[in-house]
Design goal:
Layout: H1 2-32, H2 35-56, H3 59-65, H4 71-103, H5 107-116, H6 118-121, H7 123-134, H8 138-161, H9 167-187, H10 201-232, H11 235-272, H12 277-301, H13 303-311, H14 322-332, H15 338-344, H16 348-373, H17 376-398, H18 406-434, H19 443-463, H20 472-480, H21 484-487
Amino acid sequence: MTSVRKSLAIAFIERYLMIALSLVSSMLLARLLTPEEIGLYSVNLVFIGVAHMLRDFGISNYLVQAPQLSRGEIRTAFGISLLLGCFLFLALCVAAPLVAAFYKDPRLTDTLRICALNFLVLPFNSVPSSLMRRDMQFQRLIYITLTAAVIGTVTTLSMAVLDAGPNSMAIGAVVTSAVTAMGTYAARADFRGLLPSLRDWRPIANFGGQSALTSVVTSVCMDLPELVAGKVLGFAPVAMLSRAQGLMNMIHRDLLSAVRGVAYPAFARTFREGGDVEAQHVQSVVNMSALAWPAYGLLGIHAPDFIHIMFGSQWTAAAPLVPVFCLAGALAAMGSLVSSQLMAVGRIDLVTKTELIVQPARAAVLAATLLVFQSTTAFAYAYLLAAAAALPVIYAYKAQAVDIQLRSMCAGLARSAACAAAPLLVALAFRLVFADEGGRVGVLLLVASLTCAGLLWFLSVSLVKHPLSSEMLYRRSLQLVGLARQSR
């Protein structure tokens, strides 16, 4: 358990640094590129995202989860990755002009082809990084990913200054992948010089086929509404949706991915050792909600300030969408570790079944909303509805493999809600009293609101005796902000 806590602490440090770097990059790019150019790149990412799901083929998850892992399986994983990477590179290069013709924008051809270069590089990254995750070598990974992110960000910004438009982000992504691949390849001595193979393909194909199907369906269904929005509303509204969701994803994807990245190998190890995976899942969700719910709430309450400060006045139309997406993210957090738990106990079949129900239904609702209402606001509320409807389905399938500790979960989540109440009420009071006509309170009052909310959160965690209060990382943070005495 100590190694899990250490790994989680390292993952959070990495996430905070990555978020800070991403914020700086986003703030600068929002001023260097137009909303249309960013929207065009967002549409491009949809096609790249689907291809990424095919390229991985569940190999990363297989390498982390496998009870025993032979050298032959590692070679086969590398061989399959190389084969799929080359195929997808060629497929995207051929499809790029067709995509550009569909959207009637020739710029998409070059952007998509540049992004396709990633697929020639990623096999040298995904296999060794998965082995490092399996062995929970997160400290070594943090140096590699941060170095790659810094170099990639500098590349992106430099290309934007040189007027490369949406291609600047595509070039930066390729550079980031290349640096990451060099770092992870060099970090694993047992992988360097390993020849690819296809000999032990059966167990990987059995696991990977289901994982790839799940990932592709999820990716297509999640990205389909954005494709519809690009066609129905145009690139600028897509950029507003992307910007609003991007703020929410700072928590859902960037911050909470630190928990998910550690949780999966930790669940898998606990299962291999015969431990209580459900108790570990409950503790993870309860602790995660105590962090995520206040963060989502503060982001939603002060959305106009965050949008204006970070991206400028040309993005103000995205601000009203942020609270709705944040509420959806808060709901989704309660089910975000279920798939990791099910894969860890060898029930990827249940993950597949869940996603084949949840994701197509979600995509249909969002696409229909866009076609009928042609409104970004309606899209946001449909997104919230879909997040709420998914939770009972996710837990119903989980119950087929694991005895759900519902009482323990509800008790912990009630304490998380209590921890979030006071900080959010204070932030809401700042907004109601000091906000101008645009809903903004200004930089100084925003800092004051966030500071008060943060201090109240630390006190609340201790007062309600939340499970997070027993964690060493929390205690050290408490000492850092000068509240250690109050917590005793």
